[in-house]
Write a structure and sequence with these properties.
It is built from nine helices and two strands, in the order ααααααββααα. By secondary structure, it is mostly helical.
Length: 237
């Protein structure tokens, strides 16, 4: 919950830098969703998300007569609640599964393998820009290196920690984690460019905020949780 609270606070600061009530509303609604996800109960999660979305739709409309501005604020508030409040707690859900700590390490190390593959491939062979309007430094070659790095990372972790997992499953998981991680990284780049900030926060001096450290994992965690449940963990609710 503390990670979700910090992430929500950072997001709220970017989305509503001059609107304290909107920032508080976003943090409270996001924590409500995060707490419901941690219960592991679908009914509570559904109720919390419904409450947060309805409140997120109504609250901004009550505070301005400019409908265009109001709708933009609605989108930002609901997006933040789901982006941070719903995604972050999935690391706890994953941890609670049988051998959960190993699956968390599998996810993190695979994501690290993807990041490393993208970095080194981009530095060595990067020539073609991937999405220059979003992140000028990212290249197609780097993205391909990230996919390879994700697969290599997944296979390496599988060899040492999950020898009973078939290599085709490891390849699928590695690809999924790599794609989700790159998507999460690009999304936060879009968010920071829109907000006109270099970093989401100052929690880690010289390295930005919580969202800067978690950007790739925020998309990875729910994808990994769902894929593990589908492929390998029939006990996942």
């Amino acid at each position: 919950m503390s990670v979700a609270a910090v992430g929500l606070t950072e997001y709220a600061g970017m989305a509503f830098p001059e609107d304290r009530p909107a920032r508080w509303a976003l943090v409270v609604l996001g924590l409500l969703v995060a707490a419901s996800v941690l219960t592991g109960t679908l009914a509570w999660t559904g109720a919390a998300i419904s409450t947060a979305v309805i409140a997120g739709l109504v609250f901004p409309l009550l505070r301005t007569d400019d409908l265009t501005l109001a709708l933009n604020r609605v989108a930002l508030l609901v997006l933040g609640v789901l982006y941070v409040g719903f995604f972050v707690p999935h690391i706890a859900l994953l941890r609670e599964q049988p051998d959960g700590w190993r699956w968390v390490l599998f996810t993190v190390y695979t994501a690290m393998g993807s990041d490393s593959g993208a970095y080194f491939a981009g530095r060595a062979w990067g020539r073609h820009k991937l999405l220059p309007a979003v992140s000028p430094s990212k290249t197609v070659e780097g993205a391909l290196g990230g996919l390879v790095g994700g697969i290599v990372g997944a296979l390496a972790v599988r060899t040492f920690a999950f020898p009973d997992v078939g290599w085709p499953h490891a390849v699928v998981l590695g690809l999924a984690v790599a794609v989700a991680g790159m998507a999460g990284d690009l999304f936060e780049s879009v968010l920071k460019r829109w907000a006109g900030v270099k970093d989401s926060g100052r929690l880690f001096p010289g390295h930005g905020g919580m969202l800067d450290r978690l950007d790739s994992l925020l998309f990875v965690l729910p994808v990994a949780y769902l894929l593990f449940g589908w492929l390998l963990l029939p006990s996942v609710p």
